[in-house]
């Protein structure tokens, strides 16, 4: 047992599971051992980096005893990953955020907020106090949402 290390697998709902592995084990092996049949749905994040290369060993990623790996189960990418299981190893850049309506929504809202702030600054007389407070509130709320989505 001297070559075994314990890794804490932490989930989005703040639950944890302890994984007992060897440093020579791979990311793919860890997924297979603890999430059999769900390997394509599981995303591992360690020190802010998405672990995409399934062949990398835990030692090469500098994962040591009592490290925390954040686990996320992706429901939407399950079908695409099942069809193309090697997508993350053959094209690592392609597994980033896909171009779609959901990813265009944030820049679109940023643009709209920028235009409204431009009008607020140049045509201040048209904005009442409640409108200004509402604009500030929407901007702060959107900032929290944007940083929550992309700042992880």
From TrEMBL:
Gene3D superfamilies from the UniProt entry: Phosphatidylinositol 3-kinase Catalytic Subunit, Chain A, domain 1
Record-linked CDD domains: Ubl_TMUB2
A cellular component term, taken from the record's GO annotations: membrane
Principal location class: membrane
InterPro entries, per database record: TMUB1/2, Ubiquitin-like_dom, Ubiquitin-like_domsf
PANTHER family attached to this UniProt entry: PROTEIN C7ORF21, TRANSMEMBRANE AND UBIQUITIN-LIKE DOMAIN-CONTAINING PROTEIN 2
Protein name stated in the entry: TMUB2 protein
Subcellular location: Membrane
Any one GO BP annotation for this protein: ERAD pathway
Membrane topology of the entry: Multi-pass membrane protein
Domain Ubiquitin-like span(s) in chain numbering: 5-78
Gene that encodes the chain: Tmub2
Keywords linked to the UniProt accession: Membrane, Transmembrane, Transmembrane helix
Transmembrane segments: 104-121, 127-150
């Amino acid at each position: 047992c001297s070559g075994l290390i314990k890794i804490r697998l932490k989930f989005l709902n703040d639950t944890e599971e302890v994984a007992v592995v060897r440093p020579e084990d791979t990311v793919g092996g860890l997924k297979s051992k603890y999430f059999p049949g769900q390997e394509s749905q599981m995303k591992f994040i360690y020190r802010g980096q998405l672990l995409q290369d399934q062949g990398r060993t835990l030692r090469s990623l500098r994962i040591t005893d009592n490290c925390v790996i954040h686990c996320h189960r992706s429901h939407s990418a399950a079908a695409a990953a099942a069809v193309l299981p090697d997508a993350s190893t053959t094209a690592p850049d392609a597994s980033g955020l896909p171009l779609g309506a959901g990813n265009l929504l944030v820049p679109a809202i940023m643009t709209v907020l920028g235009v409204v702030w431009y009008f607020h600054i140049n045509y201040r007389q048209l904005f009442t106090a409640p409108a200004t407070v509402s604009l500030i509130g929407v901007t702060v709320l959107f900032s929290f949402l944007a940083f929550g989505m992309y700042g992880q």
